[in-house]
From TrEMBL:
Residues 109-161 form the RNA polymerase sigma factor 70 region 4 type domain. Residues 13-78 form the RNA polymerase sigma-70 region domain. This is RNA polymerase sigma-70 factor (ECF subfamily). GO terms for molecular function: DNA binding; sigma factor activity. It comes from the Bacteria. It comes from Azonexus fungiphilus. One of its GO terms (biological process) is DNA-templated transcription initiation.
Length: 167
């Protein structure tokens, strides 16, 4: 008899908990297809781990991974909805092609991922500066803070993005 492999362990985990996880996700998302997709993605994440560990509480672990995937799903939906609203407000002549839309959504998703983990104020300062083109003094005045605080927030946000991209 051979020793069980990591993939054998994950296969057993899948058989024992996939139905439960998919039901949990279906209740969270109110969508059977999205629940099925995210349940699969949860197990793919387990397979992709360099050294999967033995799980003492598999449902708690699966819930944690799946919850992160749900949050990413909702974030992507919010980005797509905001982008679609922006497109609807544009004249037809300036509407991007389907390929351009896909690239823009991917870029927005990447920006959201890069800024994930920043405190809300630091994120807001960064977005006002980089997306809206506001100067540090304007940001400071609008938020009721000093220019020095804006500079420190920008430094923190830039360092965070650099680490997310290159570390």
């Amino acid at each position: 008899m051979s020793t069980p492999t990591v993939s054998d362990s994950i296969a057993l985990l899948y058989c024992q908990h996939h139905g439960w996880l998919q039901g949990w996700l279906r209740r969270k998302l109110n969508c059977t297809q999205q629940a099925a997709d995210l349940a699969q993605d949860t197990f793919v994440r387990l397979l992709a781990k360099p050294e999967p560990q033995l799980l003492r509480e598999p449902r708690a672990y699966l819930t944690t991974v799946a919850r992160g995937l749900v949050i990413n799903h909702w974030r992507r939906q919010a980005l797509e909805q905001a982008w679609l609203e922006e497109l609807a407000a544009r004249p037809e002549v300036s509407s991007p092609s389907p390929e351009e839309r896909r690239l823009i959504l991917e870029t927005l998703e990447e920006i959201a991922r890069l800024l994930d983990g920043l405190p809300p104020r630091v994120r807001e300062i960064f977005l006002r500066s980089q997306l809206e083109g506001q100067t540090y003094p304007v940001i400071a005045e609008q938020l009721g803070i000093s220019v020095n605080v804006v500079q420190k927030a920008m430094l923190r946000a830039t360092a965070h993005c650099y680490r997310a991209l290159y570390a």
